Amino acid sequence: MSKLSEKKVIGITGSMGSGKSEIARYLRNKYPVLDCDQVNADLLKKGNLGYQKLKEMNIVELDSQGQIIKESLASYMFSSEQNRKRVEAILHPLIFEKMHEWIQNQDKSIVFVEMPLLFEISAQKHFDSIWCVVADLDVALSRLCTYRNFTREQALARLTSQMNPEKKMAQSNIILRNNSTVEQLHMQIEDALKEENSHEN
């Protein structure tokens, strides 16, 4: 059980194109699932806390409606390690705060949090169990090109910039291999749920 909650908090992570969103979609039929990318996006909306803090530090560029220009923020973050850490130092504590607030408000004994960069930002301590979904490189590339409209070069650049899947797998409690059909992935999810529930009893 999470130190901050009586609930079991399970993190879902994995590289781009591995199938995190499909796992989250499937689990939402029975369990609460929080999408940390969505939390981050909400924090950056005009007037919200992340927006205000970045604006105060003159880190962001705003459009004519006063909204953050996301491309500008991304290029600022990726122009140097120092810039990235500066933004993360503002946003990550806010994301964790929102996450724990959300967890406390759920009435299920098991809750899930989808966090793509879970290991990259050393967030392991926030979770009781971590599920890592992996896909072979060619499968992930194909998905990114088909569903996200990336060129093969763009998709490859994104995937190779992320943490090695082997390292993620070594630090995870459950591995889901998503190289085949959606049905096969769902079967693995059900097996993983049985395993998590058996630890509960």
Task: Give an account of the 3D structure.
This protein is of the alpha/beta class. The chain has two domains: 119 residues, Rossmann fold; 68 residues, no CATH class. The chain is built from nine helices and five strands. A five-stranded parallel β-sheet has the order 2-3-1-4-5, with helices on both faces. Helix 1 packs across helix 9, helix 3 runs antiparallel to helix 5 and helix 4 crosses helix 5. The longest helix is centred in the middle third of the chain and has 24 residues. The model has no long low-confidence stretch (mean pLDDT 92).
How would you sum up this structure in a few lines?
This protein has 201 residues and is an alpha/beta fold.
SSE inventory with pairings:
Blueprint (H helix, E strand, L loop, with lengths): L7 E7 L5 H8 L5 E3 H8 L5 H8 L13 H10 L1 H24 L5 E5 L14 E6 L2 H11 L4 H10 L3 H6 L3 E4 L4 H19 L1
Parallel strand pairs: 1-3, 1-4, 2-3, 4-5
